[in-house]
Amino acid sequence: MARKFSEREKENIRKSLIDICKQNWTQYGYKKTSVDEICKQVGISKGAFYLFFESKEALFCEVLCSAQHEICEMAAAVMEEEKGKSGVVKALKLVYRAYDKNSFLYGSDTADYTILMNKVSEKQAKEMEKAGELSRQLFLRHPAMKFKIDPNLAISVIYSLIMNIKNKDILPQNHLEVFDFMADHLIDNLYE
């Protein structure tokens, strides 16, 4: 007979499953991250896993969506605390560093990500798409700032700047320094 978990244990186990999945996904990718290994690291049986998530894909969807929400909330808080261009720059740097720590956030063009997307349900795919849209819309909705240029162009420039993380390993200079320089100098051309 399966052991019953207290509400506190359930909360801790669920958080651990998400944290371990995030670490393994970043390190090994979706395909090489197994439910068995995650359960082993968390200290639960594979059967107990399904008390928390209906599938491996449901866990990965939760990880991706919660990471995107967390990043957007932190960036929005930075822009709320520090109004103006300097707040936008700080928020951009925060987003970039979060992406740097979580490679699964920017690997949507990889075979590994395609495998995941082929296995998620339609509902999960829509949730993941919606979470991705949050980060793209974050800089559009800044109430105290207006763009100097077409908003779609500005958001495309910001998105391109963040996605430059894919080139971080081929740059001759530290990629964080490069990003910071570009963010510091680009914002004046985007916002009034």
Automatic annotation (TrEMBL):
<dbReference type="GO" id="GO:0003677">
    <property type="term" value="F:DNA binding"/>
</dbReference>
<keyword id="KW-0805">Transcription regulation</keyword>
<feature type="DNA-binding region" description="H-T-H motif">
    <location>
        <begin position="34"/>
        <end position="53"/>
    </location>
</feature>
<dbReference type="InterPro" id="IPR009057">
    <property type="entry name" value="Homeodomain-like_sf"/>
</dbReference>
<dbReference type="InterPro" id="IPR001647">
    <property type="entry name" value="HTH_TetR"/>
</dbReference>
<protein>
    <submittedName>
        <fullName>TetR/AcrR family transcriptional regulator</fullName>
    </submittedName>
</protein>
<keyword id="KW-0238">DNA-binding</keyword>
<feature type="domain" description="HTH tetR-type">
    <location>
        <begin position="11"/>
        <end position="71"/>
    </location>
</feature>
<keyword id="KW-0804">Transcription</keyword>
<dbReference type="Pfam" id="PF00440">
    <property type="entry name" value="TetR_N"/>
</dbReference>
<dbReference type="InterPro" id="IPR023772">
    <property type="entry name" value="DNA-bd_HTH_TetR-type_CS"/>
</dbReference>
